[in-house]
Structure formats: C-alpha cells, structure tokens
Amino acid sequence: MKYRLLLVLAASIWGSAFVAQVVGMDTIGPFTFGGVRFLLGSASLLPIIYMNRHKENPKSTKIPLWAAFLMTGLPLFAAATIQQVGLQFTTASKASFLTANYILLVPFFGLFLGHPLRLTHLVGAVTAITGVYLMSIKSDFTISPGDLMMLLCAIFFSLQILALDYLTQRFDPVLLSSGQFFVTGILNLVLAFMYETPTWTGIEGAMGALLYTGILSSGVAYTLQAVGQKYMPPTEASMILSLEMVFGGLSGVLFLGDTFTERQMAGIAAMCIGVFVSQLPSRAILRLREKPIS
Predict the structure, then answer these.
(1) Which residue has the higher pLDDT, 218 or 14?
(2) Where are the beta strands (DSSP E) in 16-167?
C-alpha cells in the first residue's frame, strides 16, 4: 500500500502542475517558463546523482552520455514546449486529459522496437479517440489550436518514453533525467532570448509556479515514481500514474474555474476508460520484430 500511495502522490503532483504552468505565464512567456523550470528540475536531481555516483550502469553501451541526454532531451523539449505554448489556447483541465494520450501511443510506437501490440492497446485507443472527438472536435469538424497542440505533444512524450525505456537499461535513470531536463531547459532559454524578453522581475513573479513545476514536479515526483515502480508490477504502476489526468482535470476546475459541457464530460469518461483499458494485460495481436531491440 505504501508504494501505491507514493505513485498516487506523484500523479497528483504532475496533474496539479498544469495549473502552475498556466499561472506561471501571467508574468513570463512559455519559453522562459520552460527554460527556468527544467533547469531547476535538472539541478534538483544533483544531490541524488551525487549519492549514486558509484553505482554502475545496468548494461554496457557504446552510446556516449551526451548522446543519451540528447536522445531523451530533444523529444522532451519538443513535447514540453508544445504543451507550454498550447496552454495559452486551451484550459489546464483539457490539456491534462489530451496529453494523457501518450499512454495510448507508446504501444503503437513500441511496435518498431519489437514490443507487441496487444488487444487492450487497440480497444483502449479506439475508446480514447472517441473521447478526444467528444472533447475537442466541434460540430463543423474543426479542432482548436490549443487542443491540437496537446495531441501533438503527446506524440513527442511517447517518443521520449520509449527513448527512456531503452536508455535507462544502460545509464543511471536519475542522471539521465537530469540530463534531459538540462537539454530541455537550455533549448527553451535559447528560444526565450530569441522570441521573448526575459526579465528577473517576471521570473520572480512566477517563482512559485517555477519552483513547483521545477522541483516538485520534476525532482520529487520523479523520485517517488522511481521508488514506487521498483516494488510494483509495471501494469499496476502505469494505471496509478495515469491518474495524473484526473488530478489535472480536478485542479483546473478547482483553482482556475475550468468548466466542461455534457459532451466534454462524456469525452472525459471515454478517455479515462480507454487509458485504463489499455494498461490491462491481454494477448498480443501484432508484432513487427521477433525480439525487442536490446
């Protein structure tokens, strides 16, 4: 029970971070927010990295550490930046549910790495797509820019998760996380100085949101996830962590006054069902490779 509660706490921190991401842009732009947030997240993991400095990598690899940072950092940069920009055009509640599509996309992209596609993956995806239609597609079959960006960022989150799945077998996962946060933060700051005008006054105004998303959402929640997943089956852990979208939706309603129509509520229900169903074990229905890439 203790480890389940750790994962629930991680999911609640990640879900409520959507509110902090919205509030933080009251005084600074999305690129400045992302830059400072992820550099704080990278720095927050340094004490853990120092304590684990003598731990050996699980598997030997010819991949240099800097390349591993880029392999995870570049898709995270794309996902997190698109999400942060998109939050200017949609609500935190809708964003949390739409971003959760990454859980459904991972099995489909995983086919190219040799992982099997299971029946529940397909059923869950079809159910969730129905939910996306009810939540975001209007009567004239258009979708808002913000909702579309949330769906796009889910694709990059899926790629980042698959990169992590491969590389955490070869590098310390905490070191890898700190490195990907560093890459994401630096690239965001480059965009910030190109397209925004970062000021210390603006950063101070967003400091509460930056500390929450940078330290709690990245450093603390990641550590809770790592500890919880170590002692729990991956399927159950994934289902608990997917509660992030529920906490995100509730946080948006409670703290930002987000509202949903009856049609959108039906979409939320379909998405939740689809995400949970996709995590259930079932028989494999498709495999592109005989063995996963090792």
Answers:
(1) 14
(2) 117-118
